[in-house]
Amino acid sequence: MNKQTAISAARPTLLGMTPEELSERCVQLGAKPFVGKQIAGWIYQRGARTFDEMTNVSASLRCQLAERYDVCGEPPARSQRSADGTVKYLFPVSGGRYVESVFIPDGERGTLCVSSQVGCKMGCTFCMTGRQGFEAQLSVAEILNQLHSLPERERLTNVVFMGQGEPMDNLDAVLRATEVLTAPWGWAWSPRRITVSTVGVRRGLERFLRESECHLAVSLHSPFPAEREALIPAQKAFTAADIIALLETYPPFRRQRQANDDSARQRRLSFEYTVFAGVNDTPRHARALVRLLSRLNCRVNLIRFHAIPGSPLRGATDAQMTAFRDSLTHAGLFATIRASRGEDILAACGLLNTAENVKR
């Protein structure tokens, strides 16, 4: 965390550019257009971090590129490892700021929880990122660098946009990042390996449904408007009823589909539901949740609340979580309890915060 880090982060970065955009940069420096495709291969398929690694690119062009660009962003400035194997990384971004990402190993599966903003505008009362407030949008390169510069890059199988920030509030960058991850010239991943979360920012959500095939996760947390607003102030602008009405118009998410329609297997819709003891875990909540989601082909992910300073909210016990899950399942709504990972290093759901990370 020094001055050089901040200076480097401000340089133009090739990470995130398409082969066509890379070709334009090369042509401007006197090279042939095909070199852009070669550079894309080095960055996305071989994970190059320096121009010196690009051995089939002329030395003179590599020198010119190095004078003007960085290949990618900085490596993590710090890491913390949980007793359960989860690793939290602190990445420097522009303006001397930082974001946190979380790598979650689980057998042969390796998931990275990435951030899309520094802080967040949504102000959810149970979330440390919400308490931080909004500081900056991440660029495409800053989002992708969390994957590209990850020490466990080769172990990654899945990515979830569930770190700091509201992805639909930075949708241009998020969509370009997912394009790089899924394009044949990029990482060539299936969209089914990527999940993007949202509290329901309407304009962004509409566009995401049109332009992306990635999985969608919606933060719900209560089926009752007033209760949801107390937890998620954005409910005032983006009501759960409006979000669900929009999702019901999208064919892959409808519960009633054509018999030969296998689109539901191509794209998954889930609702995130943090369970607070005595607040949103009663039989009344379960019944209302089943009614609210009855026309959608979806699942509910029940999340343990991880206590944050000064919050009166309490997490439900394991028995309460199980009882609530079973009540949903018995009523025909598929529900699971998400395993809590990395709580001892403040890496679990709702605990990411970089407002004071230079001091920590």
Describe this structure in words.
The chain has 360 residues and is an alpha/beta fold. Helices cover 32% and strands 17% of the residues. It has helices at 3-9, 19-28, 34-45, 59-68, 128-132, 140-148, 171-182, 202-211, 225-231, 240-248, 283-292, 318-330, and strands spanning 78-81, 87-92, 98-106, 109-113, 117-119, 134-137, 158-161, 194-198, 215-219, 269-275, 299-304, 335-337. The strands form two sheets. It has a ten-stranded mixed beta sheet. A two-stranded antiparallel ribbon has the order 5-6. Strand 1 (78-81) and strand 2 form a beta hairpin. Helix 2 (19-28) packs across helix 3 and helix 6 (140-148) crosses helix 7 (171-182). The two termini are 12 Å apart. 44% of the residues are buried. Residues 1-9 have low confidence and may be disordered.
Query: Could you tell me the mean pLDDT?
Result: 93
Give me the strand/helix succession: HHHHEEEEEHEHEHEHEHHEHEHE
Return the structural class. Answer: alpha/beta
Strand percent estimate: 15-25%
Count of DSSP-assigned helices: 12
Pick out the low-confidence regions: 1-9
Number of strands: 12
Q: Please describe the biggest sheet, giving its number of strands, its sense, and whether it closes into a barrel.
A: 10 strands, mixed
- What is the overall shape? elongated
Work out the helicity level.
25-40%
Seen as an oligomer or otherwise, the chain set is: single chain
* Widest β-sheet, arrangement of strands: 1-2-3-4-7-8-9-10-11-12
Rg computed from alpha carbons, rounded to a whole number of angstroms: 21 Å
What separation lies between the terminal Cα atoms? 12 Å
